[in-house]
């Protein structure tokens, strides 16, 4: 794979080998001449929307206060020590989506979102650590980052957010627009705005095994098949009527142990789970949808593209889109894998797709999951 300016001239393979999950990397001018994709007014407007996740954190008079969005009004921008955080801007803004997709050397199943923070002079979220890897791209103004490989991860009790009790910074950098800092999970950091600034966080997704396990068992509850019912034709009289007999336990265990999970079950679960849209996502169907025939005619001319809100993944014969899964025939699989990897199909790929795939494309178009290019 080729060297990326985004990674300071490293190839993705070198980055994974030496930095990913291992140590921080400061990349000066990762995106040379970078300018913000949204003005601060556009960001404040997004934070007012009900379908956008946002938080306002103020640190006035030495007191942290956290307000969850929608944020009707932000403090005066001349007032020091506040910050607005807007999650998943990529779902709402084409250029933000395009920026996040520059990180697709990391699989879609691991990429989470692009968060944008605005901070007034002195603003920030305080010294903390995250459970996920993060790329912090400076978009506007300057931010001073202090970072450290902190062993003591104790946090201060009683605050509305997690702040390290005893932050021990080891390095300090001032980031300018276009500079980017990669931090592995649990690496302590504190970013303070030097004058007003905006920082873009490219965040990752790493579900906790407990969460996966609970969701997997729920998923399997719908598909297990255990015929028959408990019976005890050999029952004996008991002197301890409250006791569950060993014989009963043995017979039930013998049946329940028949619940077996295959790798295919796990693949089906995982794909559905990872492609499930976030709670805040709503799709916008076309106002006047074309008939199947007209849609395919237009798609053959113009091609199609996935909505930026669509999550499409695949594993083996299984295709997953926005929480739904199905298995594709061998020839259809090639077309659908291409759609998932490129997030678009050329007209000629639509033209040669099977009737089944064309029908699926039309359904997804009607749901607002994809559109004509
Ligand atoms: C910020 O942009 O202020 C917060 C980013 C982070 O520390 O994870
Ligand atoms: Co952080």
Structure commentary:
The chain is α+β, with helices and mostly antiparallel strands and 373 residues long. The chain folds into 3 domains: 5-204, Cupin (Jelly Rolls, Sandwich); 210-263, no CATH class; 292-372, Malonyl-Coenzyme A Acyl Carrier Protein, domain 2. 27% of the residues lie in helices and 24% in strands. The protein has 10 helices and 15 strands. Strands 1, 2, 3, 4, 5, 6, 7, 8 and 9 form a 9-stranded antiparallel β-sheet that branches. A 3-stranded antiparallel β-sheet has the order 14-10-15. A 3-stranded antiparallel β-sheet has the order 11-12-13, sandwiched between helices. Strand 2 (54-60) and strand 3 form a beta hairpin. 28% of the residues are buried. The mean pLDDT is 96. Cobalt (II) ion binds next to loops. The site of succinic acid (SIN) has 10 residues, from strand 9.
The bound ligands are: succinic acid, cobalt (II) ion
Sheet having the most strands: 9 strands, antiparallel
CATH topology category name of the largest domain: Jelly Rolls
Helix and strand content put the structural class at alpha+beta
CATH architecture of the largest domain: Sandwich
Please tell me the total number of domains. 3
CATH superfamily of the largest domain: Cupin
């Amino acid at each position: 794979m080729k060297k990326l300016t985004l990674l300071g001239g490293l190839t993705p393979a070198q980055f994974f080998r030496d930095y990913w999950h291992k140590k921080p990397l400061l990349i000066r001018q990762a995106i040379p001449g970078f300018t913000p994709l949204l003005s601060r007014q556009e960001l404040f407007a997004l934070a007012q929307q009900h379908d956008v996740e946002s938080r306002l954190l103020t640190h006035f008079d030495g007191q942290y206060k956290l307000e969850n969005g929608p944020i009707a009004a932000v403090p005066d921008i001349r007032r020091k020590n506040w910050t607005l955080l807007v999650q998943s801007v990529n779902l709402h803004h084409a250029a933000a989506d395009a920026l996040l997709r520059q990180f697709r050397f990391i699989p879609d199943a691991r990429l989470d979102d692009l968060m944008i923070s605005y901070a007034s002079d002195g603003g920030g979220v305080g010294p903390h650590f995250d459970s996920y890897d993060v790329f912090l791209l400076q978009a506007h103004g300057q931010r001073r980052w202090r970072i450290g490989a902190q062993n003591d991860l104790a946090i201060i009790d009683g605050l509305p957010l997690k702040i390290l009790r005893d932050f021990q910074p080891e390095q300090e950098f001032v980031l300018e627009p276009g500079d980017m800092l990669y931090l592995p999970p649990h690496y302590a950091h504190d970013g303070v705005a030097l004058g007003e600034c905006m920082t873009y966080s490219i965040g990752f997704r790493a579900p906790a095994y407990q969460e996966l396990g609970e969701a997997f068992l729920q998923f399997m509850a719908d598909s297990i098949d255990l015929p028959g019912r408990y019976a005890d034709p050999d029952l004996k009289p008991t002197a301890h009527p409250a006791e569950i007999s060993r014989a009963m336990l043995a017979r039930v265990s013998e049946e329940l142990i028949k619940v077996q999970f295959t790798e295919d079950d796990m693949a089906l679960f995982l794909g559905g789970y990872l492609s499930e849209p976030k709670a805040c996502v709503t799709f916008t169907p076309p106002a006047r949808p074309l008939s199947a025939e007209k849609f395919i005619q237009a798609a053959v001319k113009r091609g199609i593209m996935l909505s930026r809100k669509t999550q499409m993944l695949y594993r083996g014969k299984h295709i997953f889109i926005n929480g739904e899964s199905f298995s594709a025939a061998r020839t259809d699989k090639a077309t659908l894998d291409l759609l998932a990897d490129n997030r678009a199909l050329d007209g000629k790929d639509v033209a040669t797709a099977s009737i089944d795939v064309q029908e699926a494309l039309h359904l997804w178009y009607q749901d607002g999951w994809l559109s004509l290019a």
